[in-house]
Each structure stands twice: as structure tokens, then as C-alpha cells.
Amino acid sequence: xxxxxxxxxxxxxxxxxxxxxxxxxxxxxxxxxxxxxxxxxxxxxxxxxxxxxxxxxxxxxxxxxxxxxxxxxxxxxxxxxxxxxxxxxx
Length: 90
Known about the structure:
It contains 2 helices and 2 strands, in the order E-E-H-H. It is an alpha+beta fold. It has one domain (10-80).
């Protein structure tokens, strides 16, 4: 269903409307260390800092649109399934 979400491009909601998981898409190529105006080491450092500072936010680099779509689908459906299953070992 199409709806506005508080953050991200795609999200799944619980029955009560709270967002369980969200995905924000950004275009960033794996060859960032070869960009003329961006120091690849600096960018890698900033991405590492983000992951350490915000452990609930995960960065996933998808080298194709198809992989990004597949990963997003699986991430969101897993988040929804896990929220629906109260057992800790699922």
C-alpha cells in the first residue's frame, strides 16, 4: 500500500501503525575511492562512524537495482514476520 512514512522510502508497519523497519535508498557507487572530489578513505571513515554511533542503522551496499530491490523486500518481510512471531528462536 502506498502511504507516507515518517522516514525512509519503504517501510513496514505493525498492526498498531508503528514503523517496524524502514529503508532509505541512496545512490552511491562502490568506486567511491576513485571519485575526483571525494576522498574514499574519508568517506569510509564517515560511514564507519555512522554504523558505530547508530548501531540500529545498517548500511547495505547494493551494486545493482535488482539486488537492492531483492534485499529490501527480504529485509522488510523478515522484519514483519519477526514482529508477528513472539518466539525468540525464529
